[in-house]
Amino acid sequence: MTAAETLQQTLIALGLQPALAEVTEYDAPMQLLTLLLHRDQLGREVLLTLRVYEPKAGVRDETLASAVIALKVELPYFAAEAEVMLETIRLLMLLNRTLPIGHYGFREHDGGIDFVYNLMCRDPVTLDAGLLDDVIATIGYYTRVHGDLIEQIVSGSVTCNDVIEELDRALEPNTGAS
Questions:
Q1: CB-hemisphere CA count at 13 Å for 116?
Q2: What does DSSP assign to residue 125?
């Protein structure tokens, strides 16, 4: 059983429904798992892809002997206009400062937005299911919570400054004075 197949079984045991993608010669030695993370406010699917890179056999260097699970979410938001692109990049930079894991990225060629996190482990077959569950839940939480903000920015309905002002108002202490 491959590492990706073992991870698939672990994800199923966690109540998720991952699909194992076929590995082509181009993708080798990578294996792909995809699962539905959640749906955004417009009902669009937000998918998480796990790319499993297994360590090379016989490598003694500890770093090279480790496996990498690259987790990536291609969000369903696109910033096509130059002004919106700049506002989107500004927002992503601000959001990245608040994240405990991973980061948002901007695809310049199509205006798309990704969330990426790389998990390095000795052996993906023995990866703790609780850790994997926590990582996936964290990614799901932040892509859901930040999704509304990102959608507002890419639609051009608000600017990054508007978002910052709204967040500042939400964080103002409530003194109870009327």
A1: 12
A2: G
Single-letter amino acid, residue 156: G
b/e sequence 124-141, b meaning 16+ C-beta within 10 Å: bbebeeeebbebbeebbe
Q: How many CB atoms lie within 10 A of CB 60?
A: 6
The domain that holds 163 is classified in CATH as 3.30.1460.70
Distance from C-alpha of 136 to C-alpha of 162, rounded to nearest angstrom: 30
Predicted confidence (pLDDT) per residue in 61-118, tens digit: 665 667 888 999 999 999 988 889 999 999 999 999 989 999 999 998 899 999 999 9
What is the C-alpha separation between 63 and 46, in angstroms, rounded?
32
- Which residues face 114 on adjacent strands? 74, 105
- Which of helix, strand or coil describes residue 68? strand
136 residue type, one letter: I
Does residue 119 lie in a domain region? yes
Q: What's the pLDDT at 62?
A: 61
Query: Is 178 a member of any domain?
Result: no
Instruction: Kindly report, residue by residue over 6-32, the tens digit of the pLDDT.
Output: 889 999 999 999 998 866 665 556 788
